[in-house]
Amino acid sequence: MNLLDTNLSAIEEQFDVIIAGGGPAGSAAAIAAARAGCSVLVVDRGIHPRPKVCGCCLAPAGIEALTQLGASSVLNEAQQLSTVRLECGDRIIQMRREGGVAIGRDELDESLLRVAAESGCVILMGSAASFDVDGSVVVRQDKIVRRIRSRVRIAADGLQGTSLDGMSKFEWRVSKSSRMGFGATVDGAALDICREQILMSVHTGGYIGAVRLANGRIDIAAAAHPSIIRGAGGVAPLAAQWLGSHLRIGAGLGAAEWRGTPFLTRRRMQLAYKDVLVAGDASGYVEPFTGEGMSWALATGLAAGNHASAMILSNASSNQWPRIANRIVHSSRMRCWITARLLRHPRLLRSAMHTAQFFPSVADRVASAFGSNLDATIYSRIFTKPAP
Ligand SMILES: Cc1cc2nc3c(=O)[nH]c(=O)nc-3n(C[C@H](O)[C@H](O)[C@H](O)COP(=O)(O)OP(=O)(O)OC[C@H]3O[C@@H](n4cnc5c(N)ncnc54)[C@H](O)[C@@H]3O)c2cc1C
Q: C-alpha distances in angstroms, 93 versus 151, 260, 326?
């Protein structure tokens, strides 16, 4: 039986928790709530394998969140990472950065959803969820439409999610200076990069990263100002120009299927209201340079699943959620925001790289920008339903 192949007409009318989105945030929330004893429905509009623009580098904080979830087996086939190669203008530095892994998003997201299904969650793929102001969730799968109820609803549907479109309280605030993301996974011969290495190449108007996955293919992800993309004639020529500034490029790059994202830097006006909690990218995002989005998603997803179960099983309220969510990610998002501002001035970065060649402690500080620890004490609190 395919655990992820549930028919909308066959499911119950009521769950303890309904989650829109089956990415890292949604799966983490589902696993945490199900393990606390709640009945959980996860609705995702994609069908696996579904493409996702992402640099695929999971930082130590994300690995820690997976351990907290009891789901670290999803990383069994992941590629260990040990160095960061940073390029800017005529400068290149290589820094040690151990503890992270590279994993393809098809593989990570599907494995996590399988753990959620094995924990007892019902998973509906190929289905879109819309949160109604009346407290229900309208789910659409092909031509079937059903209204399903729950005690807590979690929006974990990422930057391009639509579950909160009917609730004006949750509108986005998008930064005017935001960049857009794009990426592709390409044949292993397309670029000459080592295993275990994260490549980051910084340019005026944006940056591009690449990493070799365990299966040998290469994941490429970038963020750029829209005017720079337009000026280069599109994302494909821009990627070739940026990657080719220091590396030999093979034929596979030309065959890449590029995908884009909307503006990246944004936040929600609100993170909770009545029975609704927002987690992962759906709550806000900064920029991908420091490779932490999946860690933020896993950590806030886990905490949202725990908080949902605390709302159902004890007297927790959704009013507490914004403070909890912000405490988990605030300092690391702030550091990412400062890094993103500095990257707007490649000349400054080149000076830092020049200094780092002579002072290893500066290189360590630069390397430490790639992933950080999150407040583990918050998201490790698991509320468990007492046995009946
Ligand atoms: C260019 C780029 C590079 C990046 N590089 C890295 C990196 O190297 N490391 C890292 O940790 N992070 C990186 N990130 C960030 C990372 O991809 C995200 O932070 C992460 O995917 C967020 O997970 P999520 O679960 O919140 O959302 P998502 O992964 O976006 O999942 C949301 C899910 O919701 C579903 N959905 C949407 N709307 C609905 C709906 N109405 N109903 C049902 N389902 C719906 C979608 O199908 C999707 O499966 C990068 C991002 C970009 C743009």
A: 52, 29, 33
Is 110 a pocket residue for ligand 1 (Cβ < 6 Å)?
no
Question: Which pTM does this prediction carry?
Answer: 0.94
Mark residue 367 as left, alpha or beta (left: phi above 0; alpha: psi -120 to 50; beta: remaining).
Answer: alpha
- One-letter amino acid at 6 equals T
Three-state SS letters, 68-115: HCCCHHHHCCCEECCEEEEEECCEEEEEECCCCEECCHHHHHHHHHHH
Query: Ligand 1, closest atom to CA 300?
Result: 26
Give the ligand 1 atom nearest the CA of 56. Answer: 8
Would the CB of 284 count as within 6 Å of ligand 1? no
Whether 57 lines ligand 1, by a CB cut-off of 6 Å, is: yes
| Burial readout 23-44 (b: 16 or more C-beta within 10 A, e: otherwise) | bbbbbbbbbbbbbbbbbbbbbb
Confidence at residue 365, expressed as pLDDT on a 0 to 100 scale = 66
Instruction: At 326, list the tokens.
Output: 């912000």
pLDDT for the residue 384: 40
Residues 6+ apart with CB under 8 A from 252: 186, 187, 188, 189, 190, 191
Give the three-class secondary structure for 151.
strand
168: left (phi over 0), alpha (psi -120 to 50) or beta: alpha
Torsion 119-125-131-136 (CA) sign: negative
Split the chain (388 residues) into runs of 10 and give each run's mean pLDDT: 80 97 98 97 92 95 95 95 91 88 96 96 96 97 96 98 97 95 95 93 95 96 97 96 90 90 96 98 94 96 97 94 95 89 86 78 65 48 42
Give, using CA atoms, the residue closest to atom 20 of ligand 1.
294
Q: What ligand 1 atom has the least distance to the C-alpha of 159?
A: 30
Number of residues that this document lists for the chain: 388
At residue 212, the 3 state secondary structure works out as: strand
Q: Report the CATH architecture of 8-176+264-379.
A: 3-Layer(bba) Sandwich (3.50)
